[in-house]
Amino acid sequence: MGMNVGSSSDEDEVMVDINTTPLIDVMLVLLIMFIITIPIQTHAVKMNMPVPNNAAPPPKPPEIIRIDLDFDGTIGWNGEIVPNRAELEQRLRQIAAMPDQPEVHLRPNKLVTYKYVAMVMASAQRLGVTKIGIVGNEQFLN
Question: Nearest 5°: CA angle at 121, between 116 and 123?
């Protein structure tokens, strides 16, 4: 920084240089404020990793038996037509005797009368089949 010490003329001269001292003071104050307010960065990545266990693998998915009821009362067992009610009850009895029963999915046709559906469900309940459900209900929405 230079300083003018006296001049030979009495005229006031216009100072052309910018006084940078206040600007530097403001910049130093801002720098200190930023340093204080910025949190200290940690360079560690926190991850929740699964804990290994020695449990048995998940069991295989259950077997599914599909019983289809056609509009005229025809019963299908996994795509195979069951000739009569005695054959259906025999197959349901075999399922009920299993220690781990497969799931029975009853899929009635939209036009089948309720008596056929009730007959299959009553036979399954009477023989001890516990895992039975009706699927395909979306066809009855309209």
Answer: 95
CATH number at residue 95: 3.30.420
- Kindly report, residue by residue over 22-55, the tens digit of the pLDDT: 889 999 999 998 888 776 665 667 888 888 888 8
Query: Are the C-beta atoms of 108 and 116 separated by less than 8 Å?
Result: yes
Question: Distance between CA 65 and CA 94 in Å, rounded?
Answer: 12
Please state the separation of Cα 8 from the chain's center in Å.
Answer: 87
How many domains are there within the chain?
1
DSSP state of 140: G
Tell me what the mean pLDDT of segment 72-97 comes to. Answer: 92
Domain membership of residue 53 (yes or no) is no
pTM (two decimals) = 0.56
Whether residue 46 lies inside any domain: the answer is: no
In a domain, 102, yes or no: yes
pLDDT of res. 141: 72
User: Measured between alpha carbons, how far is residue 50 from residues 22, 56, 69 in Å?
Assistant: 57, 16, 47
The whole domain housing 74 covers: 64-137
Confirm whether 39 is domain-assigned.
no
